[in-house]
Amino acid sequence: MMPCMTHCTLRSPAALTLLAALAALTACGGGTTAGTADAGTADAGIGPGPDAATAPPDYARLFPDDRIIDVDLTFADADWATLMADPLADVYVPARLTWDGIVLDEIAVRFKGNSSRNSIERMDGERYSMKLDLDEYVTGQRLLGLDKLNLNNGFKDPSCLRERIGTSIYRAFDVPTSRTAFVRLTKNGVLFGLYLAVEQVEADFLRAHFADATGALYKPEMPDGDLVYRGGTIDSYPGIEVKSDPDTTDHTALIALLDVLAHAPAAELEAQLEATLDVEGFLRYLAVTTALVSLDSYQGSAHNYYLYEDKVAARIVVLPWDTNETFGNFSCMGLVGSLLDLPYDAPICGAAARRPLVMRVLAVPAFLARYEALLAELIAGPFAPATVAADVQAQAALIRDDVAADPTRFYPLGDFDTNVTTDLVQMGPMGRVQTVFGLTSFVERRAAALTTQLP
């Protein structure tokens, strides 16, 4: 993800190359601080530590809803050249950060992303998404209480709003979700683009949402992101990255859930799932993800989500991540029917056996009934077409001038104006027509489809 969620369709040959790449991917499924509030705090990471009882980050100033934050990253020429020499490498370089008037003289910056990073590298672009690690070089350094941030570039999103609006719907439905804010990014004082700042799921996030932030945090990727049982130790799942201190858990909670998904008999499934999974939280997550047809997630690509071991409840919690392909912007192999008609009771791509977390939970009649009730509540509340339209229009008005001024945007301003409400039809490789759903019209049609499906 990179500057802005709004940018640029490119009409140049390089742009057309990028669009072709996007279509193919879609088809496949010692510094000082100026702000005294940010100086001198230690970063304990995930788990117990000296900052565990400190004041939480200033989220209201970090992630405002009603303004765009001015951000500058200043790089030495050689350091920027290091990033550009191999954009696919996870290599940090130093930079000076000015964030909303606060200056941190030395932070660490690297490029991030998977399909977006590969596509931009192939078109010889610069609009990469970035990860900011504020205490990599200066121990204890924080920005308004936070030590890690992401700047996402709006890849594959003519509306520039999908991640912003998608995360707001998750939060409104009581699903722990990263906070976001638009930023007007300059590089060495020169306008670079409109980006979206996204809170990292790590220690501060966990402290904000859980009574005990010392549990294990996992970031699953394929081939193990499908959560199919492969053995009784964490070593059997090399694709499930342990993001927290490995000494804080023996991973029994995660292994127990995977075992239940694979082996619990039908008569015992409800009780065993209740003992190993935050079922209510998962059903809320599933309701929003399904309504948004967000298939670059567990339900489709089997990644872009986190698992957290809630030690208080002794259960696993599912957390969303990387929601730039919400509103039906990701299709995958094995999907039957249209994205707008994705069935609520089998909201997956491919074989049911490859998505046991969804299909085993929905196999329990009581859980299915609760899920249906939650979907109805969601459609009447945060996913109501009028509610979403009001938020979309407000956020579009907030960023439109910056979208127009963005020198690196992926799409022209006309595509932004259209896609806020209306579908964009584009020609992909081999003459294949692709549709990028308009946000407000998508919600109207998706809410109607779900209403028709629900009993």
Provide a descriptive summary of the structure in words:
By secondary structure, the chain is an alpha+beta fold. The protein has helices spanning 13-27, 59-62, 77-85, 115-122, 162-172, 203-209, 252-263, 266-276, 279-291, 356-362, 365-380, 385-405, 413-419, 439-453, and strands at 69-74, 93-99, 102-112, 129-133, 148-152, 180-187, 190-199, 217-220, 240-242, 305-310, 315-320, 424-427, 433-436. The protein contains 14 helices and 13 strands. A seven-stranded mixed barrel has the order 1-2-3-4-5-7-6. Helix 9 (279-291) crosses helix 11 (365-380). The protein is globular.
Write the layout of secondary structure elements.
Layout: H1 13-27, H2 59-62, E1 69-74, H3 77-85, E2 93-99, E3 102-112, H4 115-122, E4 129-133, E5 148-152, H5 162-172, E6 180-187, E7 190-199, H6 203-209, E8 217-220, E9 240-242, H7 252-263, H8 266-276, H9 279-291, E10 305-310, E11 315-320, H10 356-362, H11 365-380, H12 385-405, H13 413-419, E12 424-427, E13 433-436, H14 439-453
Quickly list its features.
single chain, 455 residues, alpha+beta, 7-stranded mixed β-barrel, 4-stranded antiparallel beta sheet, 13 strands, 17% strand
Low-pLDDT windows of residues: 1-53
Q: Any idea what the radius of gyration is? A: 21 Å
Largest sheet, described in full? 7 strands, mixed, barrel
Strand order of the largest sheet: 1-2-3-4-5-7-6
Mean pLDDT figure: 88
Query: Which class do the helix and strand fractions yield?
Result: alpha+beta
- What is the N-to-C order of secondary-structure elements (H for helix, E for strand)? HHEHEEHEEHEEHEEHHHEEHHHHEEH
Number of strands: 13
State the share of residues found in helices, binned by percent. Answer: 25-40%
Q: For the terminal residues, how far apart are their CA atoms?
A: 39 Å
Proportion of β residues?
15-25%
Which descriptor suits the 3D outline?
globular
